[in-house]
Amino acid sequence: MANVKARTRPWRAIIALVLAVGAAVLSLTADQIFTEHVVGQVVSVAAALVFCLLAVIAVVGFAGKSRDVMQPVTGRAHAAVVRYTIVLAGSIAALFITLGLLNVPLDQLLVGGAVTSIILGIAAQQSLSNVFSGLVLLLSHPFGVGDEVSFRSGAFSGQIEGIVTEIGISYVRVETADGPIRLPNAQVLASAVGPAGQSDQTVPAGQTGQAGQTGQASAQADVGNAPGGSPPAG
Description:
About 65% of the residues lie in helices and about 15% in strands. It has seven helices and five strands, in the order αααααββββαβα. A hairpin with a 3-residue loop joins strand 2 and strand 3. It starts with a helix and ends in a 9-residue tail after the last helix.
């Protein structure tokens, strides 16, 4: 059943796109088709709203299909980024086309939208920082899902070690010895990342032998220099 849905999804998106184009054409030519001005205006507005609905359905369908195609190749996180990008860009395009069909002045709307975007950007600075940091992590790929890594940062109050189980848009999910935790992408991007267990200092075998000989010689010297101690046998 899931395979059938996956195969029919592109066709549903294509049909929705074709119907959306037809609705846009009807909205533009409604005044010429209907002699009564009121009827033409009503049909034009209704067709514009239908176009917006069908366009969004088509965008979501194409975005979902793109995710399904890219997920086996690029992984779940990268495929999700592609899907979100297509949905965002397609929805904005459908909104502006709908406003154009409704004869809404776009210049004033753009100015108001710019001011609103600045206000929302300041209010959601932390969330946007996590989103953009997630995009940087997905593109730079300092670690991948399944890697056992160590994060060192003052924001984490020291060091966190674990296995990366998910790299999302806002958080990185890590399976640690104390259980799963979610680290904000902005903090992960600002932290030092390396393989887990790097802090354990091991001494090579050759240096261990030299250290043992040096310690033995020092012990013999201490015995010889001690009061009443007998010098080492010659």
